[in-house]
Amino acid sequence: MTTGTVSKLEARSHDNPDETRKPDKATVEVNNLGDYSIGRFTFQPGWTWESSIKPVAKTEHCEKTHVGYCVSGQLETWMTDGTRITITSGDSYTIPPGHDARVVGDEPFVGIEFASAATYAKR
Prior knowledge:
This protein is mainly beta. Helix content is 7%, strand content 41%.
């Protein structure tokens, strides 16, 4: 496993992000810190990848790699081969390309993303 080098001591709040994207029922807040982009993804109840992000991504399934941590809520995620998981509060997760997802329940899903924040939901 390789790790990047950080050359600057820095902290930035997601309450005042460098960039905000707002596809349907979603907010993607991104901070850029050196070579890293870290995102706070908030998906409202009723959010699905197909209805919210597919029109932006213009792909049949999400082709991003996700590495993150679930702060709150639940996100059901499934691969094109039928494999399914439900990510819940307190879970760290990895999701490979070729998946779809939806929010489960009445609570928004909030995830901190480390792999796809720079380009997720971006035209």
